[in-house]
Specification:
single chain; alpha+beta; Conserved Hypothetical Protein Mth637, Chain: A; 5-stranded mixed beta sheet; 5 strands; globular
Length: 89
């Protein structure tokens, strides 16, 4: 089974849950309304990824950087190329 690993720079406490164009470093950027308290922003990011990719939330996992703005997210059942293509705004 394919597992896509995607690096995302997360901005919590934004006005909307959305993806932004990649920054100059090439890393995909996302904004969520949730505050970074007790994992709420991380959970909001995982729900945003699942909704945008149209996959079950249970297929999306945070595999690294839970305390940092740069997150590593794994998506089961999808290649990295397909995930990146579908996540770009």
């Amino acid at each position: 089974m394919d597992v896509a690993r995607i690096e995302i720079r997360l901005t919590p406490r934004a006005g909307v849950d959305a993806f932004d164009p990649a920054g100059p470093d090439g890393i995909l950027r996302a904004r969520v309304r949730a505050a970074p308290v007790e994992g709420a922003a991380n959970e909001a990011l995982l729900r945003l990824v699942a909704r945008t990719l149209d996959v079950p939330r249970s297929s999306v996992h945070l595999v690294g950087s839970a305390q940092s703005r740069r997150k590593l997210v794994a998506v089961e059942g999808m290649t990295a190329e397909e995930a990146h293509r579908r996540l770009r705004p």
